[in-house]
Amino acid sequence: MNTVASSEPRIRSVRVTKDEIIAHLVDGRVISVPLAWSWRLSEATAAQRSRFRIIGSGQGVHWPDVDEDISVEGMLHGMPAPRPRDRDVTVPSEAKRHGPANKSIQPARVRGRANSGRRHARG
Predict the structure, then answer these.
(1) For the chain, what is the mean pLDDT?
(2) Which of 6, 32, 106, 107 is 20 to 30 A from 16 via CA?
(3) pTM above 0.90, yes or no
């Protein structure tokens, strides 16, 4: 009987071309996904795409120059990296100057407490 130590897919090696990310798995399979699935890698230079390291005992690949991670599960199950929307990435300059517009999170002013710091003599 042949027993496999781990049935989870693991990456043995990776190659990135101008169109694809190609991963050779330890079980002998070769999988590839379009480079366009990673907007960071598709916008990176060839030199940046060539600098990577396999992470998590083969669970994924990390490209430090572009801060991109791709998992073997994502490649197998077809999960392209979503491109962030502009409003998620930038903060409008108006909000930077004036703070949050939601009044419910602003500190409340307490009325009638102008003299709260003074002590009154009773007597």
Answers:
(1) 78
(2) 6
(3) no
